Amino acid sequence: MAIKQFKTESKKLLDIMINSIYTQKEIFLRELISNASDAIDKRYYLALTKEAPEVDKKTLAIDIAIDKEKRTLTISDNGIGLNDKDMDDNLGVIAQSGSQAFREAMESNKAIDIIGQFGVGFYSAFMVAKKIEVLSKRYDDDQAYLWLSEGDEGYSIKKAEKEEVGTTITLTLKDDTKEENYSEFLDSYRVQSLVKKYSDYVRYPIKMIMEKSVKKDDSDEYETRNELTTLNSMIPLWKRSKKGIKQEEYDNFYEDNFYDYREPAVTIHFAVEGNVAFDALLFIPKHASYNFYDSSYERGLKLYSRNVFIMDKCSDLIPEYFQFVRGLVDSQDLSLNISRELLQHNRQLKVMAGKIEKKVKTELENLLKDKREEYLDFYKEFGHQLKYGLYKDNGRSNEILSDLLLFYSSTEKKLVTFKEYRERMKEGQEVIYYACGESIEKIAMLPQLEVLKDEGYEILYLPEAVDEFVLLVLGNYEEKKFKSANQGDLNLEDEKSKKKLAKLTEENKGLLDLIKESLGDQVTDVKLSTRLKKAPVCLSSEEGISLEMEKVINQMPNTEKIKSSKILEINSKHDLFKALVNIYEKDKSAIKDYADLLYNQARIIEGFTVENPTEFSDKMIDLMIKASK
User: Fold this and answer.
1) What pLDDT does 21 receive?
2) Out of 145, 398, 497, 583, which could bridge 493 as a Cys pair, Cβ 3.0 to 4.6 Å?
């Protein structure tokens, strides 16, 4: 029997196939089953179009057999079959397009759709087999043929005997080594698990003899029997009509496939048709997984193509801010690269990701609108991820995320949206006010908020470190800019009040300048406050780096320290200011100690530490003693 040489640079290409293209050897079974499924598809299609004899769909199947003694694994189908020319054309080359085109595509990472093609997928079997035999009989040919190859030495084709139409591929597995255990593919339970993992939703039954423990007739004893067992479920849940699926089925599917002990908060089942068609079944969990906020967490959706499992974590299908979404996508026309493990970043994938993103957004908006308490539970678990994702995305996701964010309202005493705040804004109000701090309780006590509260303005409280950065990235909401309650001028006074304060400032310019001089570079200015009603002093800052940003950034490891511009504001209506005026008139030298006390008092209120607590305490005690004399 003459040995034919492969029509490509077989040795080199086979070496690339085995050692480079596939990183998991178990992939070969998926490839062969996928090819078998496509062969059956072709036969059934030809039968429907009367180009081939009629065939009973119930008889179409894929069979797997294991022979441990001979070390063979056999995959059989009753599909369209191959004649000698088909074998020469399809199995005699590594890729249909020839060696040069194959190498160029591989080297340029060009997308090649190889699902169901003999060639690249078929040759993945050489990762585990030292010999491959393909026995096949084509639907329109009475003669069967046997194709045989032991790898890079070439292949042979000869006439053979086979009664039924279809193809039988027999792999003689390689001998085990210290590095590789090829015998694992002779274990029926291992093969069963691989079929479940990669080919569970192939539309034809995949059958294999399995050992089962069954009860003896008329006895309570059990015995082991070999039974022909269907290994795959065949009908994907996501391919069924939503009308016929109960929520319990969705919940069970989610818990079984994503290993959660609770049902999902939201189930999203939809199909997209058009230039890029796909089915998606997505779930939003009720709680974050144990490692969700760890660096070890991998985002992504399971990816199928024509019911065949391709990838477990396709991160390109879901943005980082929605990384809590779990589920799968099945596309009929997705282009894949040569290995089917690495997706080509192409237009189809981007279109799919965009539609998934919009669908998730819509479902979350509906949850917020119709089931607010459930949304609040979701936000408690994943709100931080939405904020961090928006910040990290540097504003590109503003349109997607802005209406999903919630912040605590000073007037409503609960979490509210920007939209809800916007609808309650006072007539003529041009900005959305916010304040930052360590907690809701501490923010509520900030003296800088006094005038805003007295004037009836709603303030958003931002207790998380990422909050203010999110608002800076957003910039505005529906053309209403965000304004920090302790940064820059609030401009709430009428002209009469402004003139009165300006006059008072001018009259006490010497006192204010001396306090500023006493504090040196600790402050950029000292002025009479327009924010304070009851409190004696507070700190504010100029536009730019805020007081809260300074605290947040300086707490980060391996980060260059920054400093905000601090302005000491003094309440001109407080008795303290009157006392300072008296002290300034009697003993200007005493102002330095008072200035230091007032500044540190303001730092404490703002949540900063006092740089020298001992000195601060001693000065306070000295002044108390002097005041008592």
Assistant:
1) 52
2) 497
